[in-house]
Amino acid sequence: MNVLECINGRRSVRKFAAKAVPPEVIDELISLGTKAATGSGNQPWGFVVITDLQEMKRISDEAKSHWLANMEKYPYMQQYKNWLKDDSFNIFYNAPCLLIIYGNTESHWYVYDSTLAAGNIMLASREYGLGTCWVGFAEHICDSDLFKSKYNIPAKYKLVCPLIIGYPETELPPPKRKPALIFTATS
Q1: Running along the chain, 187 residues long, what does each successive block of 10 average in pLDDT?
Q2: Total-model pTM
Q3: Number of domains comprising the chain
Q4: What pLDDT is attached to residue 3?
Q5: I need a labelling partner for 94 at 20 to 30 A (CA). Which of 54, 131, 173, 186 fits?
Q6: Is 16 helix (H, G, I), strand (E, B) or coil?
Q7: Rounded to whole angstroms, how far apart are CA atoms 100 and 164?
Q8: Is residue 57 part of a domain?
Q9: How many CB atoms lie under 10 A from the CB of residue 57?
Q10: CATH number at residue 48
Q11: Alpha-carbon torsion (18, 20, 25, 26), positive or negative
């Protein structure tokens, strides 16, 4: 598959086959992520890999509880309230792998660099027949002091991207996008 096919066919996947992603594939995806452009050569990324489905369910339940308890602070989450109240809803969509990307805040460019690494991983995943989805629901939990302590993430690292990875249950059609807005200078 060439890069144009990867870009044109990439979709956010939310239904996964019950099949583990081999550890060597995850390692290769992380390696490809670190080939991303990086401001000042800082390479500020760090990674956590979670493949324990029970741990992912625990994190999902904790995240759902947090959002529901703080709904008034996050009006944009109201649209998801019924999902979050549903005991069977898993914010990681039962994916077999959660890859969390953190950035070292000592680099001014950590958000950009770590996002570029996530983009590389999302595209490279297609080469392995894998699907991905950036899971915003995990933002609070995966950046909490308790979570970072459990996974030995230094305090100077901040969450950038919780990314689920797995084999899609079905192949999805290419995404539809609005035409790009292109702004120009006024005379």
Answers
A1: 86 95 98 97 97 98 96 94 97 98 98 98 96 96 97 98 97 88 92
A2: 0.95
A3: 1
A4: 86
A5: 173
A6: strand
A7: 8
A8: yes
A9: 14
A10: 3.40.109.10
A11: positive
